[in-house]
Amino acid sequence: MTELEPITPREALELYIEDIDGDLSPNSVRAKRYQLSKFAEWCEGEDTDKPRVENLNEITGRDFTRFKNWRGEDISKVTLRTNLSALRSFMRFCVTVDAVDPVIPEKLNVPDLDHGENHNEDHMSGEEAEGIREYLSTFEYASMDHVLFVLQWTTGLRMGGLHSLDVGDFDRENGAFDVVHRPDQGTRLKNREDGERVVTLDATVTEVVADYVDVQRVAVEDDYGREPLFSSKYGRMSKQNLNKRVYRFTTPCYTNHGCPADKDPLECEHTGSYDNYVQCPHNQRPHAIRAGSITYWLRNDAPKKAVGDRVNASMKTLDRHYDERSEEEKAEQRREFFEDG
Prior knowledge:
The chain is mainly alpha-helical. The protein folds into 2 domains: about 10-105, DNA polymerase, domain 1; about 125-285, Intergrase catalytic core (hpI Integrase, Chain A), CATH 1.10.443. About 50% of the residues lie in helices and about 5% in strands. It has 14 helices and 5 strands. It has a 3-stranded antiparallel beta sheet with strand order 1-2-3.
């Protein structure tokens, strides 16, 4: 039997993050670090007088149960399952570096989900979206962030679709964008040619985009001679940097909506730079904007087929991952539809 080598939970976590960095996307690495840092904090006993687990060699099945009960007090069952799945993967890594016994990962009980629970709970609400939109339209009108947010919220475009947009795709006269798959020119859509479509814009969004293109946009071409909508002095803005912008303007304190942890923004470690905002536990992922947008339109009686066509998602995908309406909401909307008819 291999002799275990003493290591603290925090040291093992840093070793794991170093191992997966480069194999996973930056956002995935960030998510893993956040999820597993909660386990490290619990082991270190930040809410107690002394550490619970100082040497990972000594972790037991009982420790996992205690952590699960502790963590489950603050998060949903879906999130808890995600956290525990990440922890089990981490424990399997720990086996390979002689930090825990090979039987340890299987002592971690990951809860099953009931039918209908396995969906993404990360949805931006209409109220949150309106707050961000009001702030950006007032203080950062026609900026890149303003355009990035209003386009994602009103069209439901994935980040890949937003990244692919060119100035030439914008039809300001008719208020629309052509969304095009151009893999040979550096931009791709998730569903390739099947993701190509025209998305329409309302008059307000059209005006914001036009003002951004005319005044604020950095006038450059990318490596393929295209004029990217979201540009920097180096060419097309990368998806990673667009994501960082989303993390920043969805951080509550950035848009003057207060801090859920009651921290002073001037002293908080999660403010100041883009990378700091990325680490804030209270911001939202770009996908949350798309998911919230879809739910918003469904709750406001937009036909599901029309929503699916607009955001390039099947009815099955909408039902499983995006539709946050309760069965009571759906029934009431059906009642109103048929009574009006």
